Amino acid sequence: MRFAVFDRISTAAPAALWVFLSTLCAAGAPATASELFNLPDFAFEDGSVLPDLRIAYDTRGTLSPARDNAILLMPGATGDRHTFDPLIGPGKMFDTDRYFVISVDPVGGGESASPADGMGQDFPRYTIRDMMEAQHALVSHHLEIARLRALVGLSMGSFVALEWGIHHPESVASLILLAPSPKADAGFRLTIDLISGTIALDPEWQGGRYAHNPVEGLRHAGMLMYPWVVSTAYLDRSSPRVLAKDLDESAKTFGAWDANALVLRFAAYRAHDVAVPFEGDMRAALAKVTAPTLLLANASDRLVGIDGARRIRDGIPKATYGEIPSDLGHRAVRALPGTNEGDFIDRQVRGFLATLGNRAGN
Fold first, then answer.
1. DSSP code for 31
2. 125, 189, 286, 321: most buried by Cβ count inside 10 Å?
3. Is 339 helix (H, G, I), strand (E, B) or coil?
4. What is the pLDDT of residues 122-168, one digit of tens each?
């Protein structure tokens, strides 16, 4: 058993964070309940145990009397539970007049338990499946929601959502996977190795036992990552000024992380392979997914290639597949409504959720 007792602790976000969020969310956005959930003696896939695993999450909207209108949102590798904030609210993609929306910080980042808490290199080497099991405990045992209306994952979050659909198919009515893949391919793994190696080149790194966070190594890793999250076509059409701004933003994003937290997060991302518990049989793993699944990918994505999404489409019984028309590369799946990419995603997600309404009794 991964859990025994569950505690609910209210938490307040730092003032600076709330200022930032207020610029993202439209006026009249629903009130957010930010809370922490603690799992004692959480057993990781590698056998290590953390005495107190903390998961941070937000909720918006109202849970229906039948407890059947909940949607769980999971961010990408460098994101947190606020990634989806601009899409949550009355009338928005994740409509709080209709849905009870849960957004979560996966294990290893945000305000959830992380190497940055002080354990550093001694933090368990967690996996995508560990993230999934912790979030499943949050939903099923803490929030007492037996079945989610939808489970939405972005990039790494889609990896977590896919694992959920495989291992707990009875607890999810639908999956929405943005830039998904059933495993990390060789190019992706090499990219992660280069990122981790770049961080390790910073003299401050000290094998991960650092006294000072190796910020310069992190910033250089962010700049190295940048060409993989856009496309050649995007680079060709962008001015030097735009590219310099993009590079600086990528450097800042990585530089804001604790180095051990980022390295272990990307190690989990790198090791993703849904076939591992099935003796390497990818078909057997994907066949476990019974929920209707919306797959949205982009042909210009060279970080998480489109072949992975197509493989999922071909391996699960109830797949709806769409390709985002864009040259933004991996960043296309983060586009907001008001852009061509964002409007396409908005239409696809709303349409897909609408098809579930009658079946869910909504």
1. P
2. 286
3. strand
4. 999 999 999 999 999 999 999 999 999 999 999 999 999 999 999 99
pLDDT tens string 253-292: 999 999 999 999 999 999 999 999 999 999 999 999 999 9
How many other β-carbons are positioned within 10 Å of the β-carbon of residue 147? 17
Contact 303, 229 (CB under 8 A): yes
Inter-residue contact 340 to 325 (CB < 8 Å) = yes
Query: Which band of pLDDT confidence, cut at 50, 70 and 90, is reported for residue 34?
Result: confident
Chain segment 313-334, per-residue pLDDT in tens: 999 999 999 999 999 999 999 9
CA 243, CA 362: separation in Å to the nearest integer?
A: 46
Task: Report how far Cα 247 is from the mean position of its chain's Cα atoms.
Answer: 22
Residue 195: closest CA among 214, 182, 179: 214
Crossing angle between the packed helical segments 240-255 and 215-229, to the nearest 10 degrees: 130
CA-based nearest residue to 325, from 347, 308, 353: 347
DSSP 122-188: GS----HHHHHHHHHHIIIIIS--SSBSEEEEETHHHHHHHHHHHH-GGGBS-EEEES--SB--HHH
DSSP string computed for 308-336: HHHHHHHHSSSEEEEE---SSGGGGGGPP
Residues in the chain: 362
- Taking CA 226 as the corner, what is the angle to CA 192 and CA 202, rounded to the nearest 5 degrees? 60
Helix axes 156-167, 128-137, angle to 10 degrees: 70
Write the DSSP string, 220-252: HHHHHHHHHHS-HHHHHHS-HHHHHHHHHHHHH
Torsion angles phi and psi, residue 123, rounded to 5: -70, 140
pLDDT, position 357: 66
Q: CB within 8 A of 160, min separation 6: which ones? A: 74, 106, 128, 131, 132, 135, 153
Token look-up 């602790």 returns: 9
Residues in contact with 351: Cβ distance below 8 Å, sequence separation at least 6, in sequence order: none
